[in-house]
Amino acid sequence: MIDLGLTKLALIGAVALIVIGPKELPKVARMAGTLFGRAQRYISQVKSEVSREIEMEELRKMQKEVESAAQNFEQDIHKEFSEAQQELNELVQPSANSIYAGDDTYASPSDEAMIEKAKNFRRRKVAKTSNIPHWYKSRHGHRSQVISGAARMAKHRVNRSPSSSFF
C-alpha cells in the first residue's frame, strides 16, 4: 500500500493546482473522489461476493458430510431394527405355535384389565410430563396425581357407592 503522509498530500495538491489550475481543481477533485468511492465500493462488493462463495462451498461440503452421516445412521438403524425384528419373530414363533396347538400356557389379559392399565398409564404420563418440576409440586402442595373433574366430584360425594367409583 502507498504510504501517504501530510507532506506528500500537500505536494500532490500543489502540483495539481499548478498543472490543472485553480478554476478546474474543485471539479477534478470531486470527480477523483467519486471515482475513488466507486472503486472502493466495487472492491468491497467483489470481496464480499468471494467470501460468500467460499462460505457457500463450505456449507455444501458440510451438507454432504451431514447427509452421508445421516444415511449411515439410517442404514445402521434399519440393520439393528431388522435384527431385533428377526429375534422377536424367533421368540414369538414357538409361543404362537403353542397357542394354535391348544396349549394353555399363554393366557390373554381381559379387556377390563387392559383398559384399566391404559387409564393408569395415561394418568401417570400426564402427571410426569407437566411443566412444573416434581420437587416444586411436592413443596408447594400441587397435585401429583391428575384426575378428572367428574372423579373429583365423585370423591367428595356423601353417598358413594363402590360401583360408582372411577378409580
From TrEMBL:
One of its GO terms (cellular component) is TAT protein transport complex. The keyword Transmembrane applies. Coiled coil: none annotated. The keyword Protein transport applies. Keywords: Cell inner membrane, Cell membrane, Membrane, Protein transport, Translocation, Transmembrane, Transmembrane helix, Transport. It holds the Pfam family TatA_B_E. GO terms for molecular function: protein transmembrane transporter activity. It is a single-pass membrane protein. GO terms for biological process: protein transport by the Tat complex. It is found in: Cell membrane; Membrane. InterPro entries: TatA/B/E, TatB. Belongs to the TatB family. Part of the twin-arginine translocation (Tat) system that transports large folded proteins containing a characteristic twin-arginine motif in their signal peptide across membranes. Together with TatC, TatB is part of a receptor directly interacting with Tat signal peptides. TatB may form an oligomeric binding site that transiently accommodates folded Tat precursor proteins before their translocation. HAMAP family: TatB. This is Sec-independent protein translocase protein TatB.
